[in-house]
Fold this sequence. Notes:
With 638 residues, the chain is mostly beta strands. 8% of the residues lie in helices and 52% in strands.
Amino acid sequence: xLTSNAQVKKPAIDTKAKINKAINRxxxxxxxxxxxxxxxxxxxHYTDFKIYDFERDSTIIDTTLTILxxxxxxxxxxxxxxxxxxxxxxxxxxxxxxxFDEKNLNPSIGAKxxxxxxxEIEDINYYKVPTPSTELMYRTxxxxxxxxxxxLTMNTSPQFNFSFAYKGLRSLxxxxxxxxxxxxxxxxxxxxxxxxxxDFRGHYTSQDLMNQENGGLTxxxxxxxxxxxxxxxxxxxxxxxxxxxxxxxxxKRYFIEQRYHLLRIKSDSLQKSQITLGQTYSYxxxxxxxxxxxxxxxFGDALTTAIDDHAYHQQHNTxxxxxxKSPLLLGNIKIAAxxxxxxxxxxxxxxxxxxxxxxxxxxxxxxxxxxxxxxxNKIHLKAVLNQQITGENTTKSLFASATYxxxxxxxxxxxxxxxxxxxxxxxxxxRSNYKEYNWYHNFSNQDVWNVGFELKxxxxxxxxxxxxxxxxxxxxxxxNAAPLQATETVDxxxxxxxxxxxxxxFGFENTLMxxxxxxxxxxxxxxxxxxxxxxxxxxxxxxNPLYIQTGVxxxxxxxxxxxxxxxxxxxxxxxxxxEIGNYPTIDIFLNGQIQRTxxxxxxxxxxxxxxxxxxxxAPNYPxxxxxxxxxxxxxxxx
Length: 638
């Protein structure tokens, strides 16, 4: 009886297995057919979620948690090792180092201290993703407020992608009249035809960066701050120089680029010739305003009882280019003709006294560009030549580089960059309701000779060496609040090394920068700057659902005559009276990752609780006090 029952059950088991096998085969067939009709339905891999920068170099949407991600977890979303942020996020940052590797030779509106959170053309990314993708970044503000950066991107087909992103910031700050309220909207699109003969991309940005400007601490309040008196631990009790001042940088930009691959001739199985025609166009407007309901002796005598300075800059950039790619050229050659048209001026200027000053500067600049790229085994060569042929203050540049790339994490690069650049527009012309801030100058071009070497090695270290020689350096002077041009040649050397060590579950990341300047009164930087992070990293709980990193980061820079901040100009000015630096700043952090969510918890400037309050970002502007911050970055894919 038992044997008979076993014989009856056996076919039932076989039948069930056959049914499951048939269902799986049908499911696989259906999935395959759906993938053939729409590749977005097929199974995806993390390498399919791609980000393209302005140069069309691609990376992937990285959801891992690393110490480098911790360095970038700020409202700029960039590593701020070379920056010295002011006390409230959304405010400006002083510079601990400079870069003279200039690519854009056209003059800008200036107000450089207001541009740290401004997205230029080169800062916009484009995407290609198999499924709709979102990234949310949140971080608490100082006292009241927060920053939120949200991105949504999707492909409607394998050929077309679009994205929308908005970063909003509002932070009250602990000192009086230091509110930051800013917004950065970005929209992008990119398309490539199925036969890959035609592609275009473009973006639109709308940005408004508002800051209340307090002018720093008064002389009395500065002494009270340095005394460490507990009565002034509430920073709102300290008097500031300005209580009614506000600055605003606002900009909008339209950009589009299209290419058509006219001819493709396959010469062999590995190489092919190609001719590409292309065109780019951008239109951008910027406005920089400084306003006060009254006047302040901080900026000298005024022409009116209220201040309403308003500079504007409108520019059109049009380029047409052709690219030849052929084995006979050992790579590809790009030839372009560029037209840069701009108008820069002021609204509501006072004409009664300074009628001799022009209200605006207007010019059309034609330029030619030639670019050559070639790859020989693992060596990539690049050369770019720019020559302006019409317009005022003729500019030109030569850039050449050689890169040896062993793989994606090990490479070495040497380059040379020689250029002459037109002075920024606020150096040439400025008009204000304050008497001392009215000028019109015909400065010479700034000439720069820059050579550098970069090394990235996973086994050894990362290193960067730059040497710059600058003639006719332009700068703002703190004494007379006016732009000046140096007669001396300035030599500037910057060397940076980065090396990390790991042992068991411990890590030790180190960045060290050395700088030397021949004329410290023209470019002022600390001789030594370092950042050292000691941390412990591990997985927690069964199945490793939580990964954490906890540790401490110490940042130090030697004493130097830090540039002073001038909110009326939105610029930093050179001064030789007050030194800051020679103190450590210690942050304690605890970061965690759960799937694709990274959580950040940080205690900033612990040093302020155990040392004297001598931490500053600029003369009269204290840096950040002890504070506790929280935030997260969350990626999810539909």
